[in-house]
Task: structure prediction
Amino acid sequence: MRFRNLDLNLLVALEALLDEKSVTRAAERMHLSQAAMSNALTRLREFFGDDLLLRVGRQMVMTDRARIIHEEVRHLLRRIDTNVLTVRDFRPEEQQRTISIMTSDVASIVFMSGVSREVGRRAPGIVFNVRPIVHPPHAYLEQGRMDFLLIPRQYTSPQHPMQELYSEPFACLVWKDSRLARSALTVEDYLAAGHVTVEIGQMAKVPADRNLIEQTHGMLRSAVIVNAFSAVPWMVVGTERIGTLPESLARKFAEILPLEVKPLPFDVPENRLVLQWGRFAEDDACLKWVRQIICEHRPGADETAPAP
Result:
């Protein structure tokens, strides 16, 4: 379909090209051949009378014209998806849809498992695609590649609506037969011990709790470094190591492994879990319903105001 001599299908290719700044990655994202995506870029350049992407060294960068239209194209496609393609007469039991959520393994284990059971019971055609956190997470909302972010407050973007779900303290896990299990942890015990530490994603992001602890008390001694919180307890069993986790996850693992949960020997701000969604998805009836289910499952939901 053409509009003012523009093949509207090219708008989707344009967004992918400007998001990825790479013909190869844009082709992979759209499941096209590299030749087909190169052809789309050529046609777009001819229509706009602009190069759109220029090679600078080993990278491609947007032209001034591309930077101007990038956000407009993204907004247009999100509005079409939400306001034109979304069915207004919403019935959960009739939905056939995949909903993508970016979150940590902590939230997947302690929170999303219950949400997925409830949604599966009431809307069996909805499939959750739960993906690990990639930085910056808000870019995936803006590109329409994620429906929700379920992430710590410090990773959210002020450009999109959000709902704080709950907060909880961090706690320590120690092996039940270790010396550390025999008495309350002291600051000296904690700082002298070897730790199972977490570094997240390709950029090896350090979790907020460790950042705060190290800013105040100095660098922790990492005995083992893992890439997910759920791997921490297994590296603590049978050792004198300490693992620091959100308390709810620590207690879940202490129920199934020979571990004890101990409070941190100093104050650290609590882990604040936030649900965030794209600003263009506010009127999407299905996503609004799933948001409500998620908010209903947050700890203490019965004692708080109704979710948006």
